[in-house]
Each structure stands twice: as structure tokens, then as C-alpha cells.
Amino acid sequence: MALTKISLVLLLCLLCLYSETVKSQNCGCASGVCCSQYGYCGNGPDYCGSGCRSGPCTGTQGGSLGSIVSQAFFNNIINRADNGCAGKRFYTRDSFISAANTFPNFANSVTRREIATMFAHFTQEVGYFCYIEEINGASRNYCDDRNYPQYPCAPGKTYYGRGPIQLSWNYNYAQCGQSLGLDLLRQPETVSSNPTIAFRTALWFWVNNVRPVLNQGFGATIRAINGDLECNGSLMVKEAGSLVNEVKWNIFGSSFIVLDSGLGSEMGDPSHRNLGGKSVKPTQNSISTSGAVNLRKVNRVRGHWSASKSD
């Protein structure tokens, strides 16, 4: 019963993946009119085909990036964050779209399933886009230039989690920066000062580490992002990891209840689902009194959430 309630509540978070918006947020187009890749309103292949941002796009793979990640979809997630959250004034749907368009292979081939998977991870990593930086991250050491001497840590700089996927460690900042044409090794704070760059770092990690394992199932994406913490039984995260995986699985699964009512049997019983690490079941303390997972009662620690009791 509790898992059913979790799915129903989190379903609302991603419901807009499959609903049409009245107007295009980028073009201001009327309902039923496409917003082209260049920002113009109209119908026909030039407007609704490849690169179409929103409206009745006719592109392959379940619609264009802009039509899948609509403003309403994004708002349904970020509006669940507390008003005092710094991320609520930082992350925007437009910054995500702008970042994604710098990865044309991703933007032109992304599917609803991949977006549902990606935003399930984003939602858990930064609490409905509440957080920009890891809580107490500055007090932790993410410098490993002994094993990665080619990426020496810059004096006075720290490499704790930043952005929607919480990019961490000097070697990740260095390699990501090289790929994006940014000096993130010397200026890691750039990630938390520019929302488009923040999403670009998340997409860099996604394209290089997560996308290649999408066909292996949802559990493989958990392992690709934080397998050492959420899958391998660390004492520090043994219980919290189960909650994290369950939250992610339900967010992902909820989006597809709308898309394909037959997917439920394919997904199996989530209370015993192997999510890439071990079979997981939510603990009593992981469920709020309303039956919904309360991400506001969870603390961000080194790439995972540690559970605390609900009020």
C-alpha cells in the first residue's frame, strides 16, 4: 500500500511528460503550432520536424527534447522544492534546453524513457532542484592527485558535488572542463554560478557514463552514477541507499504509468526490485505519514541521501 501511494504521489511529479502545453515557452506559439529549432512558429516539416522545440512535433524517438521537457513538466518538479531553496532560483527549464543543445547527438535522439530516467536521478540528487552544491561539501576532501597526477588540484579550490548530478572529484572536474572547453580544475565554482554550465556538466557525465548503459536497465544507471555508495553495501549508506534507489525507481516508473499502462508488469514488484546493487525495500522511517517519500527530510551526503525520520 505504501509503495502504491509513493507511485501515485510521484506520478504527479512527471505527469507533464505526456501533456501538451497551451503555448510554447520559447516561441509563444499558440496551441497546435510548432516551435521550430530556430524559434519560429509554424506547421510542417520545417517547424515540426528535426529540432522542433515544442508543440505537435513529428520527430522520431517520442518527440523532440523541447516537447518532452516542457515548462509544465519542469515546473512540476521544481515547484516541490521549498521556496527558500537556492536551486529554485537557479535551475531553469531554459538552461537545461540550452545545455542539452550543446550535445546535439543527445538532443536529437533522446527518448521519453531516457528523460524519465535522467530526471529521476536529478530529482534525487538535488532534492527537486533544491540544492546547487553538496551540503557541507566544502569540509570534505575530493582531491586525489596522487592517483591522478595529470589533474593536480588547484590551490584553495575544492571539488565537492555541484550541479544537478553533483559533479565531484578533481579528475571529473578536469575531464569535464576539457570536454566543455572550460577550466573547471582552476574554477570549479563556475558550475554553481551558471545554471547552463551546471546542466552541461551533468549532461557530460550522463552522455559519457550513463547513456552507454541505459539498455542494461534502471539499476545500471544507479551504479553508473553512484554505485559505490548506493549499490555496494557501505555501512554508512546501507539503509539510506535502499531508500534512494526506491525513490528513484518510483519516480522513473511513475512517468511510464501514463505512457504505457502495460509497463507495470514489465517493471515487476518494486518492493523487491534489484536496482543495480541489491534487492531493496523501504524502511518504516523512509515513509512519511502521508505515505510519500519526504525528500525534504533527507540530508545530502557525498552523492547520496541519508534518511531521517518523518514528522
TrEMBL record:
SMART domains: ChtBD1. Disulfide bonds join 29-41, 34-48. The keyword Phosphoprotein does not apply. Residues 1-24 form the signal peptide. PANTHER family: CHITIN-BINDING TYPE-1 DOMAIN-CONTAINING PROTEIN, CHITINASE-RELATED. Pfam families: Chitin_bind_1, Glyco_hydro_19. This is Chitin-binding type-1 domain-containing protein. One of its GO terms (molecular function) is chitin binding. Keywords: Chitin-binding, Disulfide bond, Signal. It comes from the Eukaryota. SUPFAM superfamilies: Lysozyme-like, Plant lectins/antimicrobial peptides. Coiled coil: none annotated. Belongs to the glycosyl hydrolase 19 family. Chitinase class I subfamily. It comes from Brassica campestris (Field mustard). The keyword Lipid biosynthesis does not apply. Residues 24-59 form the Chitin-binding type-1 domain. GO terms for biological process: cell wall macromolecule catabolic process; chitin catabolic process.
